[in-house]
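Quick one, T. Sequence first:
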Amino acid sequence: MPGELKQKMEKQGYHFVGEHSAVKICEYTANGLRGQTLCYKYTFYGIKSWQCMQATPAIGCDLGCTFCWRLIPEEHGFKWNELNAVEKWDDPLVVVEGMIREQKRIVSGFNSVADTDLKKRRWKEANVPMHVALSLTGEPMFYPKMGELIKEFHKRGISTFLVHNGTLPEALERLNPLPTQLYVSLQAPDQETYIRTVRPKIPGTWERFREALSVLKTLKTRTVVRMTLVKTLNMHNPEGYAELITLGMPSYVEVKGFSFVGAARGEQRGLNMETMPTHAEIKQFANRLAELTGYIVTAEHMPSRIVLLSRDMECKKNRIIDFSKIGKEYVQSSQIVAKA
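Structure tokens:
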């Protein structure tokens, strides 16, 4: 990884693991440790924010989404595939143990603000991560040992939420085992909007994205289509979004408003505070999608400006993760088992 880029990311709070992986504390993890507002994943799925790791096993990404809060290498003079030019990919065991080690290092400082029984309990629990969101930066599916990585997390009783941008449908098809919950990001209702919004770095991504949604429908795990809506950019044509949702038939749809934070504030992105939808506007768009798809409006999280849709009543009923089932087939052979 280019040293200059690594230094920039370290200043932004990234903790690197091995040659190509990283961990960074999420705002809601920090909030949870301070006894403040928790993440939408807590409201929607029962994920304890203070026990959640935000991580990735691959830094490079083949998209340059306009709304992304993360650092985009091309905006700093680097090529995206420089970051994935790895001579030898790290072993999944090394990656998992490194991520857990760095997460513990990150949360260690919060012991100083643990001045109530609630904060003390959460800080103690934060040292035993129970969940990993593989969505920090880049495209995690470029890591060729993703199935083994997921298995190592599940051995430890750690649930896995894997977020994929939809450009590697063949990787989805061969993924084994599957994560606890698998996301495909849905960022546009049509090809023209897609090209303008995600700024792909390789050809044929729209066709590959549609193929990924077709694969999503066949996978035997909890699946999610996640939308990030930006006014004046991709917050239109709900009929087009509905067609794509129907193509993938995910268990859940997350309809979320863009936030003008981080790298998204760069002049080259062309965004501003006015392009952030209000929560009321997100609810209105989500209600329209529910009408078009038959999905059920299930929950909302105002701090994140996000609404959850469920495919049917069974999905709505079972949306809270049962941690006792995570890695059940592995726990007997694992020597490190975190209890929910």
